[in-house]
Amino acid sequence: MKIEEVKSTTKSQRISAHSHVKGLGLDAEQRAIRNASGLVGQEQAREAAGIIVELIRRKKMAGRAVLLAGPPGTGKTALALAVAHELGSRVPFCPMVGSEVYSTEIKKTEVLMENFRRAIGLRIKEVKEVYEGELTEMTPTETENSYGGYGKTVSHVVIGLRTVKGAKQLKLDPSIYETLQKEKVEIGDVIYIEANSGAVKRQGRCDTYATEYDLETEEYVPLPKGDVHKKKEVVQDVTLHDLDVANARPQGGQDILSIMGSLIKPKKTEITDKLRREINKVVNKYIDQGVAELVPGVLFIDEVHMLDIECFTYLHRALESPLAPIVIFATNRGRCLIRGTEILSPHGMPLDLLDRIMIIRTLPYGMEEMIEILRIRAKVEHIDVADDSLQALAEIGNVSTLRYAVQLMTPANILARINGKEQIEKEEIDEVRDLFLDAKSSALLLKQEDAKYMK
After folding, report:
1. Quick one: which H or E segment has residue 58?
2. Average pLDDT over all residues of the chain
3. Quick one: CATH architecture of 35-119+297-361?
4. Strand pairing partners for 143?
5. Average pLDDT for residues 128-152, to the nearest whole number?
6. How many angstroms separate the CA atoms of 162 and 315, rounded?
7. Crossing angle for the helix pair 108-118 and 240-248, nearest 10 degrees?
8. Most buried one in 130, 231, 405, 425, CB count within 10 A?
9. Pick from 281, 241, 283, 280: which is nearest to 263 by CA?
10. Contact between 347 and 304 (Cβ < 8 Å)
């Protein structure tokens, strides 16, 4: 009998364009390290972004915004993402593109406001009565179907919970049994159940099972101390947009956190200003009582020149709101027309809005910086590239764009595997470059063979 080896059961994560960005890569004196946290070069822009982060931490950023301006492929999105990483993992980061506002279903200003509210977090702390412990028993009790027939239904479920101090058996509603199954809770898991709402939260596997040889990697947590029935401070993070949507279609419940039932709508509808004002009142009341804490996140609007004059006018009011996130714009345009007008303006933005914006300039990368970035991307994508191949890719990026050079790596890796090689060599780079044209080569070819194409 053939024995097959199981190599790994860990899920392979999709590698995005900015998976390697972990922060701004600044030292203790807020100076940019040449190659750190996934960022290379752009020292001046990174140091400026570091000052922005400090302004945000000191709560001095109200009413202002940031504009990242530079040619395509100079790391504007990476910088915005790095700012969000520096602020912390629980800080909301909401990216959007200027053209998103032109939706056929809702108004432009509504799209902007929705994204503003998505970028504002609310950290709610509540002291709740909970039953917490390691699950030792889960026995459903069945009864005859009250509607007749041969089927049986679950009338209740008996579960056992154990802590360091003692153990307790609970008789629960069948709906909680369904929740336990949905959460994939098993014997040996540490869970807590809210006494008033019946909400179930799986915290992880009890660390007494840590010596078992499980195929899947598991998060182990210690056996809870104290009694099974206790008062516990529960911290949950939501965004203001979550509150808007949930209150537009309320599901019932007593507290502010019970509104998270169904966030998926069959059709997109606008949320009224009146509803938002009411939610803001409740949020402000919770903040004053010390129950909740506002967490301003980052709203990143790429290709901001795609917005029109109406959107820019609306942004003025939104930026002055007391519940406003940190807004980071990005554009690769120089002087161009403001959309919807005949006014020529820097970056396609009105001058009165530019007055309240701090502009950070990003510069094109040099050859050495391109080689470092390509080396980082190769490591992230688990691709083995020879040094001369990295040099060739950097030269291609210098002539065309860095994005094009990065995109060539994966197809070159496939070609290398077909050719029986473990490492990408210059031969694969040259072949892939012939197979896939960059924008400049394509434009030149179109010009040369203009007569062969339809007008």
Report:
1. none
2. 78
3. 3-Layer(aba) Sandwich (3.40)
4. 153
5. 72
6. 54
7. 120
8. 405
9. 241
10. yes
